[in-house]
Amino acid sequence: MFGYLKPNRKGVDDLNPSRATAERPIFIVYEPPRSGEVRPFHHAYLVLGRRGSSAQVDSNSKGTAYDRFGAKGEKTTFAADPEGFEGLKNGEWAVFQGWTNKTNEAIQSTVDGLEVESYLLEQSYSVWANNCQHYAKQLAVEIVTRQP
Fold it and tell me: Any bridge partners for residue 110, and if so which?
């Protein structure tokens, strides 16, 4: 089933997956630099919403956060926090990527594969070529099973 249009609380049509398919929405969340931080881009991480939730995220949304941390010359750390996303915070915004019906185990296998690939290719964290935004986008591409 491809989903249906359902008005959300604000009266705007929102495409929701069918609850019968148990799909989960995927978002990339961007957070602006904090006061005093020196970085030329917004930090990004992937959020996997809860099964049957809508293609919209707000301050009350919950989900699993997948992030990548590192600095030039340091080992990159890949982290998944099952309850790590508790809604958008001030200044953050999210971009909907699609839905997935993959299991948590399959997604973790994909995360592990991206980490191994990064290690084998000796790709250390780089502001310009290998950062948190690249990781979030690549993970989204790997786990999306249905695009909007």
Answer: none
